[in-house]
Each structure stands twice: as structure tokens, then as C-alpha cells.
Specification:
Blueprint: E1 9-15, H1 19-30, E2 35-38, H2 47-50, E3 60-61, E4 64-65, H3 69-80, E5 88-89, E6 97-98, H4 103-116, E7 120-122, E8 126-133, E9 136-144, E10 147-158, H5 164-168, E11 173-175, E12 190-193, H6 197-206, H7 220-223, E13 228-231, H8 233-241, E14 252-256, E15 263-265, H9 278-302, E16 310-314, E17 324-326, H10 334-338, E18 346-350, E19 354-357, E20 364-367, E21 376-379, E22 391-393, H11 402-408, H12 411-429, H13 440-449
Parallel strand pairs: 1-2, 1-10, 2-7, 10-22
Antiparallel strand pairs: 3-4, 5-6, 8-9, 9-10, 11-17, 12-15, 12-16, 13-14, 14-15, 18-21, 19-20
InterPro entries: FAD/NAD-bd_sf, HdrA-like
Pfam families: FAD_oxidored
Organism: Hungatella hathewayi
Length: 456
């Protein structure tokens, strides 16, 4: 166990040990920074290990892999340990490739990689306040089994997803949809064992007209090692009309994990709740479990292959798609994504589409890039604001419009953003901590040395 002390000043403190925060910590640690990760849970990985989220979507633009670096290292280690199939075709072709994985294996891989990078991790630790002075964060107030303490660093990375540290520090923030503040629905995922995959495939083949996502992709059902499917709209609508389901969604969405016949069901939809309000978030957990019970009954009655399946778990906590966003030096927009604007200060690429689950219920608005196999860029200026000089955001809480955030919120992109934040934090910590002063050329050089792909 690495020695820890509250009175020590770290080079970099990472708030939140989700994928973006963990990758940020690894990147900074590899550049020699003394890094402390603060995580409220008992393990790293965030939504992937704590919410039943999967698979990872997506590292690729068509056949081209555009997210690499530390995120790809994680996948390779999972593959080596037998915890992932690696990148495989999406049988629905919503995206080109997706990446199934084992969440328990991921916990261990992230433990190992942070230790190898020399990071200190403090689990079971909540952040309650930020103490600021002269435009910088001086310390964070934390609460855990030791009581209430302060921790300090030269540079801070907000990897909380909800922008907690940025908000506590008084950074300018936005929240939800620009027109009314509404957020995308939360989802409580479910995981099943012993699902009869062949029964599902046979049903889809016999009723292909009812499964638009699979039309034209039927051959992938036989050639790809793991199956994903979406459909059963009529059955879902009729169950809602009968009062058997309260879920304001139009279909069932399922993904086979790295383990054959094990499926993640991503179908509940918890609307009109606030992820940064404790009472509302608590009610969302209860609502999610209630919807899961309804959905379990529906699957067993109406979806072939689930009759003898074993419900392994409902998500240990509800999954949040969006809440607060930093108002940064630059705000990424839907136009930046759809028009594939280039940025000289690019720090990450992505090809995941704008994917907005209706904040008020039924419907999903997906907007894809006009040319298949292309990708968009994200500039460094989305990671920081001018008001708090030693703060970087990582993951889904970066500076982005509601629409743009719906594209950059998924795991591989969040990890790539964390990679950039970690390198930038390490570089800033060698100076006066002002993240705006980081040389873009040096940042990009260091990212490429760590395997990131940044070509325009």
C-alpha cells in the first residue's frame, strides 16, 4: 500500500475514478506527476463497473480506429486476461465496432495500471467543497471513514461526470438542454445469464421486417462472436398500453457481453430526475428498480430466449447520461461534430453520433456524420475555463452543448478526453499550475508518445 497523508501536496488530484478520471491519472503518473485519485465507490471504472454499462462504444470510424492510447491499452490487457473479445462488429451497425468486456476484470486491470503509474487511490471518499483563492483551487474538502479533511494539489482534474468540483469551485456551468434545462433520461441497466441467443436470432430472422436495425445486416448474426439487438416495438407499445410498463421508451435494447449468453439490457428510462440533486437521484434509484421488475416480467413473456434466463443484477447504481457541463474557453457544438470541424489544438477524436434519448419520454434522436467512416475532433479548450486556472474537466462534463455532449459522453471518447486532461495536468503542474498556459504542441507530442491518435 502506497503511503498517504492529508498534509501532502500532490501534483495532480483527480476527482472521480471513472474511466476518464482513471485514464487521466495513469497519463499524468506516467509523466512523473504525483497523483491522488479520489473515488466515492470501492473500485475504479465508474459507469462501466458501477452501473452495469457496456459495451464500450466506439473506438472506430468505420474501419479506422481513431481512439487509441491508454484506452486501447486497457482493451488489450482485458483481452490478454480473457476479459474481452476486443473490438467486434456491431450486429445492428448503429456504429461500426463495439467492445464487449467483463466488468469484474476491468476493476482489476485499472487497479494494476494506476499502481504501475505510481498513483495513490483513496476509495470511499466524497468531495464536499472546494476552497479557492485568486482564481485557483487551493484544496478540496473530503469526507470518508477518517472524518472530514482537506487535500491539495497544484492541478485538479474533475472526472466526476457531474462536474462536482467545477461547480463547488464556482466555475461557470450549464445544465441540461438549453431550452428548458431538461436532461437525458437516466437508465438502470440489467444483466442476464443463460439467455438463448439462437432463439432470439431465429425470431429476428422470421420477423426481419419488424427489426429495422438488422435489415441488411442479417449475415452479421452468424459471423460476429457476440450479438446485440434492438426491437420488439409492437410488443413494448402494447405492454405500455396495458399498463404493464411505465417505461417511456419505444423498444428493447440488449448487448451480449464478453461471456456468451450473458446480456446487458439497456432499456429503462427514468425521466424528470436530476442527477445533481440528492433527493431526486435517490428517487431515480427506486424508480429504476421498479422499472427493472416490470421489464423482467415483459422479457420473460414476450422476448424469445429470456424465458429461462437468470437475472444476475440490476445496476448497482443508476446510470446518468448528462447533468452539468463546464462553460469552458470553447464550447463544442453539434455543428462542430456534424461538419467535422478541424482544430489546431485537437486532443481527441470520436465517431460516436449525436445520440439524444428524449428527456421527456419516448423517442431517440440520432444524428450521424454525413459520410460513413469519418470522425470529428475535440479541442483542448473544451477542458478548461478562464475563471479557475488550475482546473481541468475530463469525460462527459467538458464544455459542450447539450447536443454535442450527447455524442462525446460514451466511454472510449470519455477515456480519450481523460488521457488529454492527464497529460495537460502533468505539464501544468511543472509550471505554475495554470492549465491555459500548457503548450498545445507539447501536449499533442506527449499524447502521441502515449499512443493517442490525433491526425486531422
Amino acid at each position: 500500500m502506497k503511503e498517504f497523508g492529508y498534509d501532502k501536496q500532490y501534483d495532480v488530484i483527480v476527482a472521480g475514478g471513472g474511466v476518464s478520471g482513471t485514464v487521466a491519472a495513469i497519463a499524468a503518473g506516467r509523466l512523473g506527476a504525483d497523483v491522488l485519485i479520489l473515488e466515492e465507490g470501492a473500485y475504479l471504472g465508474g459507469a462501466l463497473t458501477g452501473c452495469g454499462v457496456g459495451p464500450m462504444m466506439t473506438f472506430h470510424a468505420g474501419e479506422k480506429q481513431v481512439i487509441r492510447g491508454i484506452m486501447e491499452e486497457i482493451v488489450e490487457r482485458l483481452k490478454t486476461d480473457g476479459y474481452s473479445t476486443g473490438h467486434i462488429y456491431d450486429t445492428m451497425q448503429y456504429i461500426s465496432y463495439l467492445t464487449p468486456f467483463n466488468s469484474e476484470g476491468l476493476k482489476v486491470v485499472l487497479d494494476e495500471m494506476t499502481a504501475e503509474a505510481g498513483c495513490t487511490v483513496l476509495f470511499h471518499t466524497f468531495i464536499g467543497a472546494a476552497v479557492c483563492g485568486e482564481g485557483k483551487i487551493e484544496s478540496l474538502t473530503v469526507c470518508n471513514k477518517d472524518g472530514i479533511h482537506s487535500v491539495s494539489a497544484r492541478v485538479y482534474i474533475d472526472g466526476t461526470g457531474d462536474g462536482d468540483v467545477a461547480a463547488f469551485a464556482g466555475a461557470p456551468m450549464t445544465k441540461g438542454r438549453e431550452s428548458d434545462g431538461a436532461a437525458q433520461p437516466m437508465t438502470m441497466n440489467m444483466k442476464y445469464l443463460n439467455v438463448d441467443t439462437e432463439a432470439i436470432k431465429e425470431h429476428i430472422r422470421m420477423h426481419i421486417a419488424d427489426f429495422s436495425r438488422h435489415q441488411g445486416n442479417e449475415e452479421l448474426m452468424d459471423t460476429v462472436s457476440r450479438f446485440s439487438f434492438c426491437g420488439f416495438q409492437d410488443e413494448f407499445r402494447e405492454a405500455r398500453e396495458r399498463g404493464e410498463l411505465e417505461i417511456r421508451r419505444e423498444d428493447v435494447l440488449c448487448f451480449e457481453t464478453d461471456r456468451p449468453r450473458e446480456y446487458i439490457v439497456n432499456t429503462t428510462r427514468i425521466i424528470d430526475h436530476d442527477a445533481v440533486n440528492a433527493a431526486s437521484l435517490s428517487d431515480a434509484e427506486v424508480t429504476g428498480r421498479r422499472q427493472c421488475r416490470q421489464l423482467d416480467r415483459f422479457l420473460r413473456r414476450h422476448v424469445p430466449g429470456f424465458q429461462n434466463a437468470v437475472l444476475e443484477f440490476t445496476g448497482p447504481r443508476v446510470g446518468v447520461r448528462g447533468s452539468r457541463q463546464l462553460s469552458g474557453k470553447y464550447t463544442l457544438t453539434a455543428e462542430d461534430i456534424l461538419e467535422r470541424r478541424s482544430f489546431d489544438s485537437v486532443i481527441a477524436h470520436s465517431a460516436y453520433p449525436i445520440d439524444i434519448h428524449n428527456p421527456k419520454g419516448v423517442g431517440t434522436d440520432s444524428r450521424f456524420l454525413s459520410e460513413k467512416g469519418t470522425y470529428y475532433s475535440i479541442p483542448y479548450e473544451t477542458l478548461y475555463c478562464e475563471e479557475i486556472k488550475n482546473l481541468l474537466a475530463a469525460g462527459r462534463c467538458i464544455s459542450a452543448s447539450f447536443e454535442a455532449q450527447a455524442a462525446i459522453r460514451t466511454t472510449p471518447t470519455a477515456g480519450a478526453l481523460g488521457h488529454a486532461a492527464g497529460v495537460a495536468a502533468a505539464l501544468a503542474a511543472k509550471g505554475d499550475g495554470d492549465v491555459s498556459k500548457v503548450s498545445r504542441n507539447e501536449l499533442q507530442k506527449r499524447l502521441k508518445e502515449q499512443g493517442a491518435y490525433l491526425d486531422l
